[in-house]
UniProtKB/TrEMBL annotation:
Organism: Fervidicoccus fontis
Superkingdom: Archaea
InterPro entries, per database record: ARMT-1-like_metal-bd_sf, ARMT1-like_metal-bd, PH1575-like
Pfam families: ARMT1-like_dom
Signal peptide: none
Stretches assigned to the Damage-control phosphatase ARMT1-like metal-binding domain: 6-269
UniProt-recorded name of the protein: DUF89 family protein
Length: 294
């Protein structure tokens, strides 16, 4: 697959940002940039996930952002308390999930300011809203694939509410740390006892091709609806072909210029889109530059 030059720039920006955050020196920069020169030939999903393992090794921490993730969870909890008592139907919950996809540390050109995260941010209108296209009467089991910490607290609220509406909800998260993404172990603590949590292997997106033949892949195929959060899960799916055609539904903010162009929205806009829309619009991106392998 080819990718826009912005994806390469974003990868370099993300990992050098991780190095600055960790306070690492010249040797770590040299080793990381050398690794990136090889990883950049892989798919976007693998290049980003495998390069983060390089950062973890260089920092000596399995989860370099653990402390930051706890701060973001506390921030989200304070804002969530302002809406917890509101009555919400399915469409309302999905809109909330899309708007909550504000948290991030590693997208080129997108800066998340914790001080700006507020109730107004959660109530921001969607630039694309396809929540009304879901036929809820045909839905029994939902697989909910999570993204970042912080918003994971709000996702847990959404999962609980969907369960109260009568759906069986399987929460899906990565097993190993990746940037500020919530891990399956962290998610189990947020959701509490009784929640069904599935962990994908390593730190790859649960929607990436390597999960097709795993237990997670089986559960995803069996679900009536897959709600996937964030750019990384969208890209993991696009990188892998339409292996969950007609099941997936994506909630995200178009944080990067590539995604914003693909969906013809302002950068940072929240969108809620069907699988068909996600696939169709992703094919409109003018790919160029390096050819990557899955």
């Amino acid at each position: 697959m080819n990718r826009p030059a912005e994806c390469i720039a974003c990868l370099i920006n993300s990992r050098t940002g991780d190095l600055r955050e960790a306070g690492l020196g010249e040797e770590a920069y040299y080793h990381t940039l050398l690794s990136l020169s090889n990883l950049i030939l892989k798919s976007r999903t693998r290049a980003f996930s495998e390069s983060f393992r390089v950062i973890a090794e260089a920092s000596g921490k399995n989860d370099p952002y653990w402390e930051k993730k706890q701060v973001l969870n506390s921030l989200a909890q304070r804002v969530l308390e302002l809406i917890e008592g509101e009555e919400m139907r399915e469409e309302d919950l999905l809109r909330l999930g899309a708007a909550a996809n504000s948290f991030d540390t590693s997208v080129l050109g997108y800066e998340f300011n914790p001080e700006s995260f507020s109730l107004e941010k959660l109530q921001e209108p969607l630039a694309i809203d396809e929540t009304g296209k879901i036929v809820w009467e045909k839905i029994g089991t939902i697989a909910y694939v999570l993204d970042n910490s912080g918003e994971a607290v709000i996702d847990a609220f959404i999962i609980t509410k969907l369960s109260e509406l009568g759906y069986r909800v399987l929460a899906v998260a990565r097993e190993d740390p990746y940037e500020i993404d919530v891990t399956a172990t962290e998610l189990e603590k947020i959701l509490g006892k009784g929640a069904e949590v599935l962990k994908s292997r390593g730190n790859l997106s649960p929607l990436y091709a390597l999960e097709r033949d795993t237990l997670v892949g089986k559960r995803l195929r069996e679900a009536d609806l897959i709600i996937a959060k964030g750019i990384a899960n969208l890209e993991g799916y696009i990188d892998s072909g339409r292996w969950l055609k007609d099941k997936a539904f994506f909630l995200l903010r178009a944080k990067c210029p590539v995604i914003a162009r693909a969906f013809e929205v302002q950068k940072g806009s929240p969108i809620a889109i069907m699988e068909e829309t996600a696939w169709k619009n992703s094919q409109r991106i003018k790919w160029n530059g390096v050819t990557a392998s899955v």
